[in-house]
Specification:
alpha+beta, 14% strand, 2 helices, single chain
């Protein structure tokens, strides 16, 4: 009887030791799994951040392009006044970037201020553009000097900035910054951050043919070195 009880006690102790051993092994396995997952997450985290930032920036550039198209369509249709002209014989690409303190708030689908230069495209349907809002867009527009013949049309240049780039203390960029060595450029869609807020999202030139006749519009765009005109 004593021997049997002793054997039971020994068996019980062996079972307890076996259970403790299995429990310890499970904890070690869990820790190893956590470490492996942490290493994998650390490795793929930069890719996730880059992918998300690029997607957001690509969407922002797409919306800025739509804003530029909305503006040019409005000028062509006559529902938006033509922008102020730049001095004669000025290369549209060399026009300075706007002053960052040009506005703090202005109404949607209106020029900001008395000059016809900065136009508000409301991106969040709030009814106005604010220089603290990254979803609103400001179109900087400028055109060739006053046309001697309105039937010949004219060229305009456009830069589309985020509205929050117009905060005091920032220096807005353009394709050519006159008088400085700094060269600006429009933003890339591929980015690992929030993008260059000071640079335009879109920069372009286009032709406005509102009220122009084909022959005079064509003649203005025609190569002056071409002796045989094709504008009939």
């Amino acid at each position: 009887m004593i021997k049997r009880n002793c054997m039971k006690t020994i068996h019980r102790q062996l079972l307890q030791l076996n259970n403790h051993s299995q429990a310890g092994f499970t904890i070690i396995e869990s820790l190893m799994a956590i470490i492996v997952v942490a290493i994998l997450l650390t490795a793929i985290a930069p890719v996730i951040v880059l992918s998300t930032a690029t997607r957001v920036q690509a969407r922002r550039v797409e919306l800025a392009t739509q804003a530029a198209k909305t503006y040019t369509d409005g000028v062509n249709a006559g529902s938006i006044d033509s922008p102020d002209p730049v001095p004669a014989n000025t290369d549209l690409g060399s026009v300075n970037a706007p002053n960052s303190g040009s506005f703090t708030s202005c109404d949607s689908s209106k020029y900001c201020g008395s000059k016809k230069e900065l136009y508000c495209i409301d991106g969040d349907s709030s009814g106005k553009c604010e220089n603290t809002n990254s979803r609103d867009f400001i179109v900087q527009a400028f055109r060739t000097g006053t046309a001697t013949d309105p039937q010949a049309g004219y060229s305009i240049g456009l830069r589309v900035y985020r509205a929050d780039a117009f905060q005091s203390g920032t220096t807005l960029k353009a394709s050519k910054d006159q008088g400085t060595s700094k060269k600006g450029k429009s933003q890339n869609t591929f980015t690992g951050g929030i993008g260059d807020r000071e640079a335009p999202l879109v920069e372009m030139t286009t032709e406005i043919a509102s009220g122009a006749t084909f022959s005079k519009f064509c003649s203005r765009l025609e190569d002056t070195n071409n002796t045989q005109s094709k504008c009939k």
